[in-house]
Design brief:
With 593 residues, the protein is an alpha/beta fold. It is built from 21 helices and 23 strands. The protein has a nine-stranded mixed beta sheet with strand order 11-10-9-12-13-14-19-23-22, with helices on both faces. Strands 5-2-1-6-7-8 form a six-stranded mixed beta sheet, covered by helices on one side. Strands 3-4 form a two-stranded antiparallel sheet. Helix 2 packs across helix 3 and helix 15 packs parallel to helix 16.
Length: 593
């Protein structure tokens, strides 16, 4: 209600001002044309022309939505619109004058040009006046935090504009840049300084920096470390799209940004397909569901045995309820799963359901075998029986020369599904490392510990892991599925590994709680110190630089089925030895500490 009142008030104000200024401009145009002495014979034409021009100008201002623009948003774009609207008004009047010149005569046509110039000056000056006052207004230091803007860019200009209007709660005191050609030039009212001046600014009390540059991940990490080195710990990123700043996050520093994400390939692959996603409510599964809907799947069957997880993804995609089918079911229920597949006849199955937490699978090895291996076998067999065209299994870097029960069960899943592939049933597996923020991963754990003011716990000072944003990992999974021919084991290039202790230190810095410290607890059972490199020199490149095809050994399915049956009937203490018979490279790490 209040917003509507202010809009109406603004419209009335500008409308009244414009009416007065347009009337004044036509009068002054005649005054200038006749050097301040208008002959009486021209007053009638002046009045008629003034009324018509006034109607034309006001009407075109409404058409160009000029009255929708607030003072503070008046820019070159709005000035351009006013220019075009006034030109059109004068041209339309000239057309009217051409056909009805007797109605206006005597009338000096040179007045039209003078009127246009005066109108544009008056209207532009009125609207820019508030912006001029804002630009020269002194910001009060006691209410706003001093900051330095890193990067003399168009983003920086938007940021400085927002600061002048008081929308940031920050007071820029300098703009710095590393590019020599920009140093000494003006960015708004600031002379751009060399980035080396950051240390000096920090000593003067500036502890906040806003990054207004588009940087690659390595460049951003380097700049972050540089700022922290100068004790500028409050670091923000400026978004051009939202015109807002946000605190830099650990995801911004760690996320690998693949350059070969191909929206068109994924869209053409998923368009009009019926897709089933298992584990639809999990970190990977939920993102698979979102991208399937985004890229045009005709129907999405969301399968999960967790009521809460299924509820969450169902709510997230509620706008697409005509496309989605939430199914709460265990993959171990063969009869119901068979009915589901025969009823909906999916073209593609994306199998993301699995137990992924290494310590829990170590403590519950039989459950890991049943949920990971048996459930995958059932889904794969029923998919083949029901003539599903393509089956994609989400695997993990922990399946490479596994040392844990979880990693080994996923390797068995790879062997079973890949060896089930045929001409009519195309199977592909995709391996990748950790996704940022996934349930049970280290980043949410660290965030929870920081929120509880507890020391961050890591298992070893030298432990390293690979990371990728879940949205980017999932899109690469779908790209791999799009180019699959059947029987491939795809591997995603996860970039460089990250030391978890460095990750912990950065998160403490970002939260301004370095005093919490880091506690080393010792390696857990089944845990690797170094995850295996996903890509090696023998892997085959695909058309995408982030996706490779690695080798997977053939395995006789009859024998594997017998071994899986034995696994399912075995006791917890026998699981490790039985898995090693299937996966000879399995070196179970049973030590702790």
């Amino acid at each position: 209600m209040r917003d509507s009142f202010y809009k109406s008030k603004r419209l009335i104000f500008f409308l009244c001002c414009d009416l007065i200024l347009f009337a004044l401009s036509i009068f002054l145009a005649f005054e200038l044309r006749f050097s301040g002495d208008i002959p009486n014979i021209f007053y009638a034409g002046m009045f008629k022309a003034g009324v018509i021009l006034l109607v034309l100008k006001i009407g075109l201002f409404f058409i160009f939505r000029i009255y929708k623009v607030a003072w503070r948003f008046f820019s070159l774009n709005e000035a351009r619109k006013i220019f075009v609207a006034l030109v059109l008004a004068e041209l339309i009047f000239l057309v009217i004058f051409y056909f009805f010149d007797d109605f206006f005569n005597p009338f000096p046509r040179s007045v039209i040009g003078i009127d246009f110039a005066l109108s544009y000056i008056f209207i532009g000056t009125l609207r820019i006046s508030k912006r001029m006052l804002v630009d020269f207004r002194k910001t009060r230091f006691e209410k706003e935090t001093p900051c330095v803007v890193v990067g003399a860019t168009s983003k920086a200009l938007h940021l400085l504009k927002g600061a002048k209007e008081g929308s940031l709660g920050l007071y820029p005191v300098a703009v710095v840049d590393a590019r020599k050609e920009l140093i000494g030039t003006y960015c708004d009212k600031f002379i751009v300084k060399d980035k080396s001046k950051l240390e000096e600014l920090s000593k003067e009390g500036v502890k906040t920096a806003i990054i207004a540059l588009k940087l690659e991940q390595d460049e951003l990490k380097k700049l972050f470390d540089e700022l922290v080195g100068y004790r500028i710990n409050d670091i923000k990123l400026f978004s051009f799209t939202s015109n807002q700043t946000k605190d830099i996050s650990i995801e911004d520093l760690l996320a690998r940004k693949p350059k070969d994400l191909d929206n068109n390939a994924v869209a053409s692959f998923l368009k009009d397909k019926i897709v089933l996603v298992s584990g639809a409510g999990g970190s990977i599964g939920s993102e698979l569901c979102k991208q399937c809907v985004k890229f045009g799947a005709k129907k999405l069957i969301m399968l999960d045995h967790s009521e809460y997880n299924l509820y969450q993804i169902n709510e997230d995609l509620s706008k697409h309820k005509e496309k989605i089918v939430p199914v709460m079911m265990s993959l171990l229920d063969e009869s119901k799963l068979d009915t589901l597949l025969s009823t909906h006849k999916p073209d593609l199955i994306l199998h993301a359901a699995a137990y992924k937490h290494v310590p829990l699978c170590e403590q519950n090895p039989h459950a890991a075998v049943i949920n990971n291996i048996l459930a995958t076998k059932i889904l794969c067999d029923l998919a083949k029986k029901n003539k599903v065209k393509r089956f994609v299994m989400i695997s993990t870097d922990k399946a490479v020369r596994p040392t844990s029960i979880m990693g080994c069960t996923k390797r068995v899943c790879e062997l079973y599904t890949l060896n089930s592939s045929s001409k009519d049933f195309e199977v592909a597996c995709v391996r990748f490392g950790n996704v940022l923020g996934s349930s049970g991963s280290v980043i949410p754990k660290f965030k929870a510990q920081i929120a509880a003011n507890e020391a961050l716990t890591i298992t070893h000072k030298d432990i390293v892991r690979y990371f990728m944003l879940v949205s980017e990992a999932v899109q690469l999974v779908l790209q791999a599925a799009a180019i699959a021919k059947g029987g491939e084991l795809f591997v995603l290039d996860m970039g460089e590994p990250v030391k978890i202790i460095d990750l912990a230190k950065k998160m403490l810095t970002l939260s301004n709680k370095p005093e919490l410290g880091i506690k080393i607890t010792g390696l857990r059972k089944g845990e690797k110190l170094f995850e295996e490199l996903l890509i090696d020199e023998n892997d085959v490149k695909t058309q995408y630089e982030s996706i490779f095809v690695t080798k997977s050994e053939p395995y006789e399915l009859t024998k594997l089925n017998e071994q899986i049956q034995t696994l399912c009937l075995s006791k917890d203490e026998d699981i490790s030895a039985l898995l090693a018979k299937i996966v000879p490279e399995f070196k179970h790490n049973t030590k702790e500490g």
